[in-house]
Amino acid sequence: MSGTRTGRTPTGRAGTALRSCRQTAERAPRQGPDPASDQAPGQAPGQAPGQAPDRSPDPAPRRASHGTPPQPSVTTPRQPTFPHDSTLRAALAAATDDRIIYDLDGIEAQYAALLRELPGVGVRFALKACPVDEVLACLAQLGAGCDAASPHEIEQALRAGVPIGRIHYGNTVKSDRNIAEAYRLGVRDFATDSLADVAAIAVHAPGSRVFCRLATSGEGALWGLSRKFGCSPEDAVLILEAARTAGLTPAGLSVHVGSQQMTSEAWQSALELLAAVVGTLNRRGILLDHVNLGGGLPALGVLDKRGRPLDPPVDKMFAVIREGVQRLREVSSSPLDFLLEPGRHLVADHGAIRAHVARLTARREPSGEDRHWLYLSCGKFNGLYEMDELQYRLEFPTHAAARPSGTPGATVPAVVAGPTCDSDDAYAHEDGLVRVPAAAASGDPVWIFSCGAYATAYMTQGFNGFQPLPYTCVRAGAASPGGSS
Ligand SMILES: Cc1ncc(COP(=O)(O)O)c(C=O)c1O
User: Fold this and answer.
1) Beta bridge partners of 447
2) Neighbour count for residue 219 (Cβ, 10 Å)
3) Does the C-beta of 126 come closer than 6 Å to ligand 1?
């Protein structure tokens, strides 16, 4: 994901786009008994059916030789279910090696659900969230366009079958060469937030349409995107006036409320801001034809840093957006179309990783505490880039809780970490430990859910020699198109 995070700044080395990942398109095995089918909704990994989630600290005695250090919380998260979980589970069960799996049916259903919530709003999928050809192609076939952040993304969207008229250049940061290349590829809609950028668009993409991104506070989001992008309302007026003078069409306004936005109030404020600026522009004789509400809609199945379900109020968000759209239509002097640029909301919950246990260890910390560490075969640099800001639901299918009528085995609270020699490659261990099977052994499969967003694009090209995960796209009823790339 692009942008300044409100939490830690991403390390640059993880930003290398994955191009070498092997692509396979498989038919998910038809549903036999689900290996986790006796796992009730709300039941956590390592937790017996019907057993209440254990949110208490580890009852095992801990030795603290230098006073009592603050105890990290230990959670065994609630287990949400998604309508298409069964397809992913079947594919995870069938996988014999590490890979990331995308459920195309699930992504399509998510897209359809979004359109039902926000009828008439055009979707430009933020392809940075999942630059996977099959995903782009299936969304394109349903009518989605793409929010592209670079000429390479524009090329990928075109290859996947997205019509050029449904692709815009949504990155406010671009060089002259980027603009000229996008123009050559046929793009005529550009995001902007500065006079310098508008002047460059006028030279290198003459006659194009521009939409100006307004800054938002980013409050309420896990990643605020508030510093690097967007301008003030006053500057937006100057920028769109300058665009008009330079022969461009001042076509719209945009916002981004911050990624994994958790509050409906953020949408409320953004929509009020948009209404005010539309009014000012209209009074200056600038009539817009669209408003772009950006990304920010949340994933539903991820957990916070401490392992608690995030539970975003999506129904309220949609209600606020519907009302705000209506209000904007009323205040605008010109008819407005509305666009949305969802990224994670469409794909996060429909992607899962099959990884394996590298090692479960126990070591004494400098504080004197005994601490378990569960090292996985994948982490921040090969699939779980956001692991320092959130946690993913984990399942250990060969351990008790996932076995039909199995008896839960013992669990231990552990810091979950990736395989590299980098200490950032771990969950935020000062905050939240995860209960994992005490008997977890090297090689045991681990299923990691709701990690379909910002995974493939944020894998390094082999940091520490750990290669990017191959990916597979699955459907319940039919093979997805494609082959090896
Ligand atoms: C311009 C733009 N639009 C949309 C998105 C997608 O955001 P999200 O994944 O939070 O929906 C991003 C993410 O960085 C972005 O930069």
Assistant:
1) 354, 395
2) 16
3) yes
CB 71 within 8 A of CB 367: no
> Do residues 385 and 394 make contact, with C-beta atoms less than 8 angstroms apart?
no
Judged by DSSP in three states, 96 sits in coil
Residue nearest to atom 7 of ligand 1 (CA): 295
109, burial (CB in 10 Å: exposed 0-12, middle 13-18, buried 19+): middle
DSSP code at position 209: E
C-alpha 140 – ligand 1 centre gap (Å): 18
Residues of the chain with CATH 3.20.20.10: 104-348
Identify the residue whose C-alpha is closest to ligand 1 atom 12.
295
236-250 pLDDT per residue, tens: 999 999 999 999 999
| Spacing of C-alpha 433 from chain mean position | 23
Gap from CA of 340 to ligand 1 centroid (Å): 10
Q: 15-28+70-100+349-475 architecture in CATH?
A: Beta Barrel (2.40)
Sign of torsion over alpha carbons 272, 276, 277, 281: positive
Would you say domain 104-348 falls under CATH 3.20.20.10?
Answer: yes
pTM: 0.84
* Contact yes or no for 440/357 (Cβ under 8 A): yes
Residues of the chain with CATH 2.40.37.10: 15-28+70-100+349-475
CA angle 12, 470, 434 (to 5 degrees): 70
Average pLDDT per run of 10 along the chain, which is 485 residues long? 37 30 36 31 32 29 34 51 77 96 96 97 98 98 98 98 98 98 98 98 98 96 89 98 98 97 98 98 98 98 92 96 98 98 98 98 92 96 93 93 59 96 88 91 97 96 95 76 34
DSSP assignment string, 318-366? HHHHHHHHHHHHHH-SS--EEEE--SHHHHGGGEEEEEEEEEEEEEE-T
Is residue 286 within 8 Å of residue 440, measured between CB atoms? no
Token pair listed for 427: 């969950």
Alpha-carbon distance of 373 to 442, in angstroms, equals: 13
The two structure tokens encoding residue 297: 């809609």
**Residue 253 to residue 270: CA distance in whole angstroms:** 11
